[in-house]
Amino acid sequence: MILTIAHHELRRLFLSPLAWTILAVVEFILAWMFLQHVESFLAIQSQLLGMAGDYGVTEVVATPLLGNAAVVLLLVVPLVSMRLVTEERRNKTLPLLFSAPLSMTEIVLGKYLGLYAFLLMQLLLITLMPLSLLTGGGLDFGLLASGVLGLVLLLGGFAAVGLFMSTLTQHQTVAAVSTFGVLLFFWLLDWARTGNGGGALPYLSLLNHTEPFLKGVFDTRDVVYHVLFIATFLALSVRRLDMDRLGG
Amino acid sequence: MNHENLLQVEGLSRFYGPLQAVKNISFEVRQGEVLGFLGPNGAGKTTTMQMLTGNLAPSQGRITVAGHDLLEDPRAAKAAIGYLPEQPPVYRELSVNEYLDYCAALNRIERGKRCAARDVAKEKCGLTDVGQRLIGNLSKGYQQRVGIAQAIIHLPPVIILDEPTAGLDPIQIREIRHLVRELGKEHSVILSTHILTEVQTVCNHVQIINKGELVLNVSSDDLAQRLQLSVLTVRFRNTPDIGAIATLPGVKNVEHSEGGSLRVYHEPSADPTEALVQRSVEQHWGLAALIPQRASLEDIFLELTRDNNTHSETAATHTTPGMEEVEPRREQRPRHGQVPREAESGERP
Question: Looking at this predicted complex, what is its ipTM?
Answer without folding.
Answer: 0.86
